Amino acid sequence: MDDQRWGFEEAEDWEYEKLSGRPPPDPVEEPTETLVGEDPDRVVAVVVSPQAAVARVRLTPEWRSRVDPRGLHSNVLVAANTATMRALAFNVERMDSTAAAVPAAPNPPPAGLDQSPLTLRDVQRLLDAVSAELDQFTERMSAVMDHPVHVQSAGEHVHGSAQRGQVLSLDIDAGWAGQARHTEIENELLEVLRAMRDTSAPQQLAAGPSGNAISELMDLAADPQRLMRRLGLPD
């Protein structure tokens, strides 16, 4: 019987596939450092990594005694966005702690460092390349971040929209939720929340702009004295 399963254990893979007609979401090893967002009724918990990647969704087996199935979507939305905000706060706090730390002694410059002269034409060519890479990054980010993404679970019982990593809306088939096993609901919620996060705030964009020209410019900016020498200016 469904309500005889206590805790947050997941359904067996074959059970999920039999009930939904699709394989369950790929298992992901839960990170050692996690943050949890919960709803006020404490029936839903969304577990995320410090980078806000959704690792797990937990739904208490007796949730129907506390929440009407027609309102479950609101609980999940609150829990998901709370988890995202906690991840953001965690990273802000970590950045503050890093900034307050005593700076380490600078490492000696590596052998074989490029010391060749730089002409104004070389510098202009580098800046033009950096500008092009930044334009490409901005274009990719705008295409993803400025428009909501819409996701539906394979079982078609859960769908929602998100933008910039925040869940905007979430809909759950109330008739299905009223009789489905809590582990089956967890799987479809996890599938949708994970996909919305991955597509509305992809990790490759979260890392910021990158490219050969940007890396070269950052390398030059990291050592102003070497840059001055390469430009033929006094240190």
TrEMBL record:
Residues 27-38 have a biased composition (Acidic residues). Residues 1-38 are annotated as: Disordered. It comes from the Bacteria. This is YbaB/EbfC DNA-binding family protein.
